[in-house]
Amino acid sequence: MHRLFVAFVPPEPMIDRLVTVMDGEPEGLRWISEEQLHCTLRFIGEVERPVAEDLAHLLAHVRAPALQCRLDGVGAFDRERRGALWARMAPREPIEALHHKIDRAVTACGLPPERRAFLPHVTLARWSGRVVEHRGWSERHGGLSSPAMRIDRFTLFESELGHAGPLYRAVAQYPLGA
């Protein structure tokens, strides 16, 4: 089985900006390593090798313009004893359009369509098993922003779960734009 997702990796200057808000507080967070920061376009989950190969082939046929994205604030998914801190990617509409094209490729492989609402973001930290007071962090970094930067590819990743958290490995990259 292969645990897969599709994402784009922000450009290095944007990652450098993200790292500045990953400041170690509040307590109880597991910060994402700089090398693993990404904006998920579609989580796929566990699939057998033939489905993974079909998906890789269909993703090569996704056509979309390159994106001009910027960082635009922070937020949290807070489900009491688990959650995540994140940075918003903007503008939403072109990223969401790419998400829908990728979702169509995923469903063409016989997998179910995405049912969750799509919010373009980069996860910065996670927590589980405890309540984390993150409002101070959100207030401190609420103005996070960056200039718009070109995103010219998206990537099919495989996620390997381990004791230290997931490890992401690029399986294939696909160009955006001309």
Automatic annotation (TrEMBL):
It catalyses: a 3'-end 2',3'-cyclophospho-ribonucleotide-RNA + H2O = a 3'-end 2'-phospho-ribonucleotide-RNA + H(+). The active site is at H38, H121. InterPro entries: Cyclic_Pdiesterase, RNA_CPDase. Belongs to the 2H phosphoesterase superfamily. ThpR family. GO terms for molecular function: 2',3'-cyclic-nucleotide 3'-phosphodiesterase activity; ligase activity; RNA 2',3'-cyclic 3'-phosphodiesterase activity. This is RNA 2',3'-cyclic phosphodiesterase. Keywords: Hydrolase, Ligase. It comes from the Bacteria. A motif (HXTX 1) lies at residues 38-41. Hydrolyzes RNA 2',3'-cyclic phosphodiester to an RNA 2'-phosphomonoester. It comes from Sphingomicrobium lutaoense. Its EC number is 3.1.4.58. It holds the Pfam family 2_5_RNA_ligase2. A motif (HXTX 2) lies at residues 121-124.
